[in-house]
Amino acid sequence: MIDCALLQSEAAALGVTLDADALERFDRYAQRLVEVNKYLNLTAITDPTEIVYKHFLDSLSVLRYVLLPLGARCIDVGTGAGFPGAALQIARPDLRMTLLDGTQKKLTFVQETMQEIGLPAQTVHLRAEEAGQASEYRARFELVTARAVANLRELCEYCLPLTKHGGIFVAMKSVQSDAELAEAQGAIRLLGGKIDAVHTFSLPGAGERTLICIKKISQTPPKYPRPSAKIAKQPLR
Ligand code: SAM
Fold it and tell me: Residues 144, 7, 63, CA angle at the centre, nearest 5°?
């Protein structure tokens, strides 16, 4: 269904090597995404070339900037139909990936698809702010990712509690927003983070992208994350 040669060469340009197994898995993932999307609203992107660029390569761009040791524990917050987490797991089957979402419907698609392609990612149906207060998830992950989930201030409260000391939280944004970044400075500090890098690049066929990489440098105070309503009503300053 997808152009595997295109995916392989564009991934190589990001420094990501995809072998034949990975390419076949991406192809099956795309097929199932389009098939299930006919009766379940998973994505607005269904053209095969757009799936390659806007879902797969966009997701894989994380690997261009973050070096992950073998077997690193990772979590994708608000994974939706599996982006970026499922794509990262396909490219790096060694990662211990958790795909988390507060909505079960898309998660069922992700779980069934990962099973079908034979990859072990764990799916978790929880809100991030609940996971952040649970000992099995709090401060356990070397990489935390989130794409198109919330504004950076809220996202930090969802994601930094899950990030292990020394680990990285990557917020994937489609446009660089200096205002959003400036507004989140207080939250980042308060939650134990520090901006490590901001990478802006253009993804062929998908426009401008920004990865905001935040390093966890100290413990998140126990009162965070707060309940959802508080996060929304009283964003951190
Ligand atoms: N990350 C995927 C992508 O880029 O294709 C999905 C993006 S979709 C716009 C946002 C997803 O985040 C939804 O599936 C929603 O259920 C989930 N979400 C939003 N807030 C959440 C929270 N606090 N905890 C867990 N999931 C959340």
Answer: 25
Give residue 20 CA to ligand 1 midpoint distance, Å: 30
Residue pair 113/32 in contact by the 8 Å Cβ criterion: yes
pLDDT in tens, 116-142: 999 989 999 999 999 999 999 999 999
Q: What is the pTM of this model?
A: 0.98
Cβ of 111 closer than 6 Å to ligand 1, yes or no, is no
Q: What is the CATH number of the domain that holds 196?
A: 3.40.50.150
Domain of 120 in residue numbering reads as: 4-233
* Strand ranges of the sheet holding 163-173, from the earlier edge strand across to the other edge: 122-125, 96-101, 73-77, 141-147, 163-173, 207-216, 193-203
The owner of tokens 């040669």 is 5
What is the number of structural domains in the chain?
Answer: 1
Interval between CA 148 and ligand 1 midpoint (Å): 7
Q: Does 218 sit in the ligand 1 pocket, CB within 6 Å?
A: no
Most informative mutation of 106, 149, 158, 224 for ligand 1 (most atoms within 8 A of CB): 149
